[in-house]
Amino acid sequence: MKHRTYLTILSITFSVTYGSDLQHPSPASAIQPQRRRHLTPNIDPRHIITSRSSSNDVSSQIFTEPSPTTSSTILRGGETSTTSSLFQLSPLALATLSISTSMSLHYFAYSLARPATMTLFTSSRLGFGNNRSAYPFAMTFISPMSFVLLLGYGGALGRYGPLPALKATTFGCASVLLLSGLLIAKLDGVVDTNPTAKWITKYLIGMLFVFRESYVQLITSQHWSFLSSVLTPKQSSRWFAPISGLTSVTSAVAAMAVGRLSQSLGLSGVLVVAGLVLGVSLLLGDVAYGIAEKNLSQNNYNVKFSKNGFNPADEHNKKTANKATNNSSDGLIIKAKDIFARVPTLWALFCEILACQGLSTLLNVLCVTKVSEVIPDDTKRAGWMGKFFATINVLSCILQFGILPAISSSVEPSTLWKGMPIAMLAATIFLATPKLGTSEPSLNLIALAFLLMKTMEFSVRRMLDEMVYVPLDYESRYLGKEVIGVLGYRFGKSAASLLLSALTSSFGVIGLKELSYFTTGAAALWLKTAWNLSNLVPTREEADEAYKKMKQE
To answer: Around 113, how many Cα atoms within 13 Å sit in the side-chain half-sphere?
Structure first.
């Protein structure tokens, strides 16, 4: 009953947001599934084990039911489901909406934790103050932390499947945020009088900062893996940008709320709220998989599959049932090397992410360092950071809802891959250009370059990144994606931070002016790797053909 009420609310929200075209299909599209129903009883059960939505002709049909009042939904395998509601969405649409909402709440929690941890880290009372070497040094630990989290995820995925892996990782991350917030609140009252408590608080905040940087992509990739498993290339090109837009909306709301929450609850209270919100995200992810796994049954090959026909776990069940083709003893590194060898596009994407995140880290260090110098007050600095990231999310939202859906249907992905680093190369050259009467770039100039980078990263690049995986196989979507997302994103950050730490140890503190020169070199490297990737990513037509070929195997 609770799930039914929840889905009704989501249906209304989805209907208002995306328009009536998702509710009432044309007569032809309503009749077409009825014709298919008479063809399905003779289908070999093996053909529906790894079934994902294959209606490539009309992408919006996956979101509709035949009638706005009383409808009979034709499911995979000829099963029929009759529902009655004013706002009708197909099971696939409800699962897509549920996982999208789950991901949006995950970003809401992250957007609360990000400015809170950054402010605590740069706090002169609780953290490391204006120590310029502390931030790059802490960033070097992100890759090891990410690798540990990835090992845990890989083990859970291989043994239990995608849903238990999502549950375990999300619950663990929510618990860390919640308990850390409570512990910091407890220590906050004694740090001024107890040196030991001050030392514990300082390094607890440092470890929390590293953890917060490490976990976000681990959970995000699992949400996107679900979406890329249930949507076709045409559907993904239409819906990935608006789905990303939902995360931008919630991120912007959270970022704008950080200032007020920190004033009323304190920064530790913001972390507690973030942990609770992430817990709610876990519940909605469970709902999405629950819809996909509805009426789970067993075919003649002793393999569990979903009658709804789009359960990502179907492919996991097939692999674990087929002992001859599934060597579970292979380690994570061996499996990753095999995936990169089979799919050269993923290796090119991994290299592109390293360069992209290296540039993003350099700009992040520039911005955090400058903000801590210009705005020494912790609460005001947290408010500034919250508004800054809120601006990024608002701009990303405008792109994701209003511009990218139209562009992605007319411009090939390879062109967009090349355009992003070209724009950043121009911005970093301008940032590094000497200004008369100034020794370092201003906060406004640094913030503008960082804003451009993060806006493209959250909107254009996120959409392009996820579209790469749609025509690929299960291992590429679930394991390869996590390796690239977690290690690629975090190793790029750690490598740039390690370089800064090494330079600081050898030559002393590096000024912001000199650091701005490094951003230009990083932008040029990103352009090189993105250009290589653009030569490998398929066109929209090639992606459709690859998807159809994969479905026939």
So the answer is: 32
Packed helices 413-432 and 344-374: angle between N→C axes, nearest 10 degrees: 30
Convert the pLDDT of each residue in 55-91 to its tens digit: 333 344 444 444 444 444 433 334 444 443 435 677 8
pLDDT at 16 over 50: no
E strand intervals along 381-509: none
Element (H, E) at 553: none
Q: From residue 146, give the alpha-carbon distance in Å to each of 112, 219, 454.
A: 20, 11, 21
Q: What's the CA gap between 303 and 548, in Å, rounded?
A: 22
Q: How many residues does the chain have?
A: 553
Detail the DSSP E strand segments found in 293-358. 297-298, 304-305
Query: What's the rounded Cα separation, in Å, for the pair 128 and 121?
Result: 6
Q: Which pLDDT value is given to residue 195?
A: 87
- Give bridge partners of residue 298 from the DSSP assignment: 304
Number of Cβ atoms within 10 Å of the Cβ of 388: 18
The b/e string for 234-247 (b: 16+ C-beta within 10 A; e otherwise) is bbbbbbbbbbbbbb
Type of residue at 496: A
Q: Residue 80 phi/psi, 5° resolution?
A: -125, 135
From 471-485, 507-521, 538-552, the region with the lowest mean pLDDT = 538-552
Residue 33: both structure tokens together: 């599934």
Collect all residues with Cβ–Cβ distance below 8 Å to 217 and sequence separation of at least 6.
146, 485, 486, 489, 490
pLDDT, mean of residues 419-445: 82
* Among candidate residues 252, 500, 503, 529, the one with its CA nearest the CA of residue 399: 252
Token representation of residue 520: 């230009």
Residue burial 16-27, b: 16+ Cβ < 10 Å; e: rest: eebeeebbebee
DSSP tag of 327:
-
477-505 per-position pLDDT tens digit:
777 777 887 777 777 777 777 777 777 66
DSSP 8-state code for residue 77 = G
Task: Measure the CA–CA gap between 137 and 427, rounded to whole angstroms.
Answer: 26
Distance, CA of 225 to CA of 202 (rounded, Å): 36
Q: What is the C-alpha separation between 271 and 113, in angstroms, rounded?
A: 6
Residue 404 pLDDT more than 70?
yes
Note whether 464 and 413 are within 8 A (CB).
yes
Q: How far apart are CA 204 and CA 188, in angstroms?
A: 12
Q: Residue 30, SS3?
A: helix
CA distance 14 to 64: 12
Instruction: Please tell me the distance from the alpha carbon of residue 29 to that of residue 35, in angstroms, as a whole number.
Output: 10
Closest by Cα among 514, 518, 479 to 495? 518
Mean pLDDT of 379-406: 83
